[in-house]
Amino acid sequence: MARRRQVYEGKAKILFEGPEPGTLVQYFKDDATAQNGQKKGVITGKGVLNNRISEYLMLKLAEVGIPTHFVRRLNMREQLIREVEIIPLEIVVRNIAAGSLATRLGIPEGTRLPRSIIEYYYKNDALNDPMVSEEHITAFGWADPHDMDDIVALTLRINDFLSGLFLGVGISLVDFKLEFGRLWEEEEMRIVLADEVSPDNCRLWDTKTSEKMDKDRFRRDLGQVAEAYQEVAKRLGIMPEAGLRDLKGPEMMQ
Fold first, then answer.
1. Residue 105's CB: how many other CB atoms inside 10 A?
2. Which residues of 223-237 are buried (b: 16+ CB within 10 A; e: fewer)?
3. pLDDT of 144-190, one tens digit each?
4. Structural domains of the chain in order of their starting residue, each with its CATH number
5. How far apart are CA 229 and CA 1, in angstroms?
6. What pTM was computed for the model?
7. By C-alpha distance, which of 138, 162, 165 is closest to 151?
């Protein structure tokens, strides 16, 4: 088999050249990082679970009219996606006080916010992804006002839909991070959801016990990280075909 060209490697995923122009293959790793890469580890099976969970959520979002880069899952660790021009922003939606918001503003963790809050962070590891305003975003040309209108509208719809979906399986969507990209089709541009939606970039708490079911278990050394991801997949009804016996999945195809 011809060796596939690697396009990009991030903390949790690798992108390879896709089989057709305008496509990429996204490979999910078991690597875990926190504190902007200062803390590193491996969570066995995380890539398999995130691939399945993100596939499920992307398809559900597409059903309600949210445009995404997702095309289809290829195997246990890979999915085919459309190639997009990534907007260098992390869009963070907060429904309940946790993480940096609780620390920054002195709000007790677990406090339900008066309304959902959207924050913007400039994607730049060297600068520790600084928080920015819409003024910064438009002034420096990362996105124009029309892009931002689309991003905010999509983000609010995604939050409403995912909050309800998770609540239906006994999970509170505390906060989450999204990334968007520009998809060009026949000289027409539209903003689409990119990256992934999984316990890696969502804070998910059990609605009854507030037990953490996301990457905070790794960040805070709480243990049972893989088990928490498995529980999310179970509740969504999408445990991998192999079940719990083989979450390592196949070797990365090249």
1. 9
2. eebbebbbbbbebbe
3. 999 999 999 999 999 999 999 999 999 999 999 999 999 988 789 99
4. 6-84+225-236 (3.30.200.20), 87-206 (3.30.470.20)
5. 33
6. 0.91
7. 138
